């Protein structure tokens, strides 16, 4: 006789009875029985009285082989014992459940790994099946432990083996499914994933009724107040069979099977939301009676907990769980009063009323008073039950009352309330405005078209005309404006068109970088020839009465940021129609002398021109807007608390929406890649080009990294940051050229071969560019690298390669740009990223090469836009050079994922790297094996 039992942890144990000879049994049983029975196990066998232990040789089979054997056991085999037939019967049941699809995956932890496996789905029918099997378990099996524990272990192990056998030999791309099919551990497992699979399985037991909890409101009594009272709410316990309506569970009218299901599932609901424990109950049902405080918490917290447990909660129809919110209604005249008195600007008188809403219900003052006095978070309002935090409602009511205390206010005052550091107690989700302020705030403003200004020698593109219309409107109303068009879309022309249109008797003060002063002069002479332009620059610049005379005799008075800071007191004494900041990112730090001087110059109107209103941080946007409309975004500290921190660190979408609502009326932004803006701009192809280090570069690179790691080992604070920043600079120098790092005046080549893999690659690129008769701009952040490269390239290509950097005087710089743009200009021009990265028009080139990477992609994009702008007729190729396996390549990968402001992990330049641990720095800076070329 062949016997069998299941031993948890050991598997299926087969042993022979006293008659050791067995007839032939079907495969794979016969094959298994031909093995030697090496192990021994103690089993309980019948005796004259009861049972007695007996030590027998056994054959142990793992689950997969056990499933094969049990499914092959014949029902009528005379030499197979009842205990083995029992196990075979269970195995065939498992197979039927598996073939019916009543199995799901689960994830469990064992031996230091997460293991996926198949298990039965569960549910009423499977529980009944297991209960019957547990009751019918043979006595010999029961001595292995608790019948239900043994059965659960057996079914669990066998289910996984049976399902994988049915699925056959197959593979999958997803690692979890692959591990599940192969019976292997899953490296991506976690407690959260395991819990999620369990919750999903629990939601699939569709063969039994679903538990539904239905909240019923108290019956209102005659003369009852609109506010909540102390009546108890009924939480009705219902069962909902699939496809039917929920039915209440009555204790004496519900069949026992359904009652058992309801009690079990209600226990699960109480476990998921413990506040349902120890509540009054209805004597004739399972219903619970809830005080108002529990009802409030049930809606706030319990509903989510019950949902996660797969239990449905139905609220009364006349129920609103709407969150309180603030709304502002703004009224303004049809046309701005500032059109007649253009100095009014942000002091324009507007009326505004704050309102408090609960969901879609806007509360009246009387309702606000009543709700503020209630002590309950659940109130009856206009025949509808509404849940809201009574404390928050009281705070919001006071907030509304305080802000509605005055009859009128100003546009600036309204914006100040919307951006103040102290956040409202509830969100502001709507601003409704009428009149011209309404069109300004909701983005539907359509300024009156401005006819082509007299004296303007240019045909404006459609978006440039729109820019002129907008600037004229903002100027007439005295509202500061930020023209933030993409680089190359003609901000200069739009501003000049405004001056031609306005023809004010007061001049405009224009502040710009030194590198673009000549460009403004040329553009003004070209587009508005009769515009009187004066450049305030140099040691012999006007002072005293001469300065006053120069101002009065000019229409456009140009100076630089450095001179603005120096001459601010003298310039502030003059009478200006307008102050314009070109490349306004120069005042992105509001605490600098330049930013303070710009704000100190009195003028009727202010305009900021910038292609990058935000380079690294939102504080930069605040600084620029604070220049054009003083105080509209509050203090730097308030702005950081209200907007910068929530957006930069927490990606707070509500804060983004609030900031955009307040700032967008004062910013006009168009990008050149938008076909609706400009359709004739050529394509721009950007690529990262990788160079290998030479052996000399690799040795220097490793030495710098080792030296830095040694220095920071036991240092902290500024000393540690200084060592890291110094190493970053030196590593970039090594990647450029050994002579750049060493500073020893050594040659570019050694024995006719390049010492720098990067410079060798640059030479190949320029060979191709010049052979095609095209021109290239080369950008570097290091002037000393440019001084090293220019002589070599000049000799190599037989041309005079101009190098534009901060030390080039204005006159020479202008000649350099003019010559390069000419038909017979040189094919190569080298520029420092800082001095040549903004304001210049260099469309004669259609190749841009960034020799060394800057940490901020916005700065690189500005440099690229010297060539990729209006007037460019050829496709532009942009190459960004990095050295393989070095810091440059790793930073390039990081920057490519940090283009959006919402992902400001890079923060300010390269300083974020200084916060890394020593191990992180090692991983970031260590030289890769592939770095060195042959």
Written overview of the protein:
The structure is a single chain. This protein has 934 residues and is an alpha/beta fold. Helix content is 41%, strand content 18%. The strands form eight sheets. The chain has a seven-stranded parallel beta sheet, sandwiched between helices. A six-stranded parallel beta sheet has the order 27-34-33-30-32-31, with helices on both faces. Helix 29 (810-821) links the parallel strand 31 and strand 32. Helix 2 crosses helix 6 (147-167), helix 15 crosses helix 16 and helix 16 (491-502) packs across helix 17 (517-527). The chain is flat, with a radius of gyration of 40 Å. The chain starts with a strand and ends in a 9-residue tail after the last helix.
Question: Secondary-structure blueprint of this entry?
Answer:
Blueprint: E1 2-7, E2 11-16, H1 29-33, E3 39-46, E4 51-61, H2 63-71, H3 82-99, E5 103-110, E6 113-120, H4 124-135, H5 139-142, H6 147-167, H7 175-182, H8 191-202, E7 210-216, E8 233-240, E9 247-248, H9 256-272, E10 288-290, H10 292-308, E11 312-314, E12 319-320, E13 324-331, E14 349-358, E15 361-362, H11 365-373, E16 378-381, E17 384-387, H12 390-403, E18 409-410, H13 411-419, E19 428-433, H14 435-441, H15 462-477, E20 481-483, H16 491-502, E21 508-512, H17 517-527, E22 533-535, H18 544-552, E23 556-560, H19 561-572, E24 578-582, H20 593-600, E25 605-609, H21 618-628, H22 636-648, H23 653-663, E26 667-668, E27 684-691, H24 695-712, H25 717-736, H26 738-742, E28 749-750, E29 753-754, H27 757-771, E30 776-780, H28 783-797, E31 803-804, H29 810-821, E32 828-832, H30 833-836, E33 847-850, H31 857-864, E34 876-883, H32 887-896, H33 918-925
Parallel strand pairs: 7-11, 12-17, 13-19, 20-25, 20-26, 21-23, 21-24, 22-23, 24-25, 27-34, 30-32, 30-33, 31-32, 33-34
Antiparallel strand pairs: 1-2, 2-4, 3-4, 5-6, 7-8, 8-9, 8-10, 13-14, 14-15, 14-18, 16-17, 28-29
């Amino acid at each position: 006789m062949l016997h069998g039992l299941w031993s948890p942890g050991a598997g299926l144990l087969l042993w022979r009875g006293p008659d050791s000879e067995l007839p032939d049994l079907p495969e794979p049983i016969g094959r298994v029985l031909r093995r030697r029975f090496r192990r021994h196990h103690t089993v309980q066998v019948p005796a004259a009285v009861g049972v007695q232990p007996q030590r027998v040789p056994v054959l142990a089979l793992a689950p997969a082989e056990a499933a094969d054997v049990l499914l092959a056991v014949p029902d009528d085999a005379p030499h197979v014992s009842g205990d083995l037939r029992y196990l075979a019967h269970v195995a065939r049941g498992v197979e039927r459940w598996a073939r019916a699809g009543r199995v799901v995956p689960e994830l469990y932890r064992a031996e230091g790994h997460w293991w996926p496996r198949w298990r039965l789905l569960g549910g009423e029918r499977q529980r009944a099946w297991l209960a019957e099997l547990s009751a019918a378990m043979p006595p010999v099996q029961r001595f292995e432990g608790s019948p239900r524990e043994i059965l659960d272990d057996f079914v669990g192990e066998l289910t996984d083996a049976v399902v994988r056998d049915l699925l056959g030999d197959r593979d999958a791309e997803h690692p979890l499914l692959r591990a599940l099919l192969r019976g292997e551990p899953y490296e991506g497992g976690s407690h959260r994933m395991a819990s999620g699979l369990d919750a999903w399985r629990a939601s699939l037991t569709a063969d039994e009724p679903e538990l539904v909890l239905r909240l019923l409101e108290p019956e209102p009594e005659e003369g009852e107040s609109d506010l909540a009272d102390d009546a108890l709410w009924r939480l009705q316990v219902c069962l909902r069979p699939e496809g039917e309506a929920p039915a209440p569970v009555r204790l004496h009218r519900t069949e026992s099977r359904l009652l058992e299901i309801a009690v079990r599932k209600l226990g699960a609901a109480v476990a998921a939301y413990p506040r349902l424990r120890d509540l009054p109950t209805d004597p004739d049902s399972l219903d619970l009676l809830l005080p108002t405080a529990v009802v409030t918490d049930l809606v706030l917290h319990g509903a989510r907990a019950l949902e996660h447990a797969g239990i449905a909660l139905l609220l009364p129809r006349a129920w609103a769980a709407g969150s309180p919110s603030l709304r502002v209604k703004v009224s303004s005249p049809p046309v701005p009063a500032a059109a007649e008195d253009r100095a009014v600007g942000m002091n324009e008188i507007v009326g505004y009323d704050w309102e408090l809403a609960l969901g879609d219900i806007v509360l009246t003052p009387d309702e606000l008073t009543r709700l503020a006095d209630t002590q309950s978070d659940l109130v009856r309002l206009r025949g509808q039950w509404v849940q809201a935090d009574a404390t928050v409602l009281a705070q919001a009511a006071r907030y509304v009352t305080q802000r509605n205390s005055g009859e009128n206010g100003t546009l600036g005052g309204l914006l100040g309330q919307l951006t103040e550091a102290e956040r409202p107690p509830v969100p502001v989700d709507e601003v409704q405005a009428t009149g011209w302020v309404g069109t300004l705030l909701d983005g539907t403003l359509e300024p009156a078209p401005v006819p082509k200004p007299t004296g303007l020698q240019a045909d404006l593109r459609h978006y440039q005309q729109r820019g002129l219309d907008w600037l004229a409107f903002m100027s007439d109303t005295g509202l500061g404006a930020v023209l933030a068009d993409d680089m190359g879309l003609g901000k200069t022309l739009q501003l000049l068109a405004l001056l031609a249109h306005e023809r004010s008797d007061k001049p405009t003060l224009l502040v710009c970088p030194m590198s673009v002063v000549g460009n403004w002069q040329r553009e003004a002479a070209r587009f508005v020839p009769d515009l009187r332009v004066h450049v305030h620059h140099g040691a012999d610049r006007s002072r005293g009465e001469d300065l006053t005379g120069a101002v009065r005799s000019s229409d456009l008075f140009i100076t630089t940021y450095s001179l603005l800071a120096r001459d601010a007191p003298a310039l502030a004494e003059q009478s200006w129609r307008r102050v314009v900041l070109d490349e306004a990112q120069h005042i992105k730090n509001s605490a600098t002398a330049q930013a303070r001087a710009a704000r100190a110059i009195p003028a009727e109107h202010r305009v900021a021109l910038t292609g990058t209103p935000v380079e690294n941080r939102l504080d930069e946007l605040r600084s620029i807007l604070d220049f054009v409309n003083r105080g509209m975004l509050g203090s730097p500290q308030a702005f950081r608390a209200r907007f910068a921190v929530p957006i930069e660190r927490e990606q707070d979408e509500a804060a983004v929406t609030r900031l955009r609502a307040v700032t967008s009326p004062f910013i006009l932004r168009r990008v050149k890649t938008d076909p609706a803006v400009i359709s004739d701009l050529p394509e721009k192809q950007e690529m990262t080009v990788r160079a290998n280090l030479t052996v000399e570069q690799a040795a220097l690179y490793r030495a710098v990294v080792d030296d830095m790691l040694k220095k920071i080992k036991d240092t902290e604070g500024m000393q540690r940051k200084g060592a890291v920043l110094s190493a970053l600079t030196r590593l970039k120098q090594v990647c450029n050229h050994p002579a750049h790092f060493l500073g020893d005046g050594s040659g570019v080549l050694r024995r006719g071969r390049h010492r720098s893999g990067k410079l060798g690659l640059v030479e190949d690129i320029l060979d191709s560019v010049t052979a095609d008769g095209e021109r290239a701009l080369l950008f570097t952040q290091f002037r000393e690298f440019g001084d090293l490269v220019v002589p070599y390239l000049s000799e190599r290509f037989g041309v005079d390669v101009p190098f534009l950097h901060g030390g080039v005087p204005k006159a020479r710089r202008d000649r350099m740009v003019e010559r390069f743009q000419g038909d017979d200009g040189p094919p190569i021009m080298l520029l420092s990223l800082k001095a040549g990265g903004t304001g210049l028009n260099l469309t004669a080139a259609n190749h841009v090469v960034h020799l060394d990477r800057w940490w901020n992609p916005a700065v690189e994009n500005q440099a690229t836009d010297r060539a990729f702008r209006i007037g460019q007729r050829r496709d532009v190729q942009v190459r960004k050079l990095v050295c393989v396996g070095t810091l440059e390549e790793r930073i390039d990968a990081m920057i490519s994922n940090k283009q959006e402001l919402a992902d400001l992990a890079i923060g300010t330049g390269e300083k974020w790297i200084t916060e890394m641990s020593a191990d992180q720095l090692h991983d970031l800076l260590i030289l890769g094996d592939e770095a060195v070329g042959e």
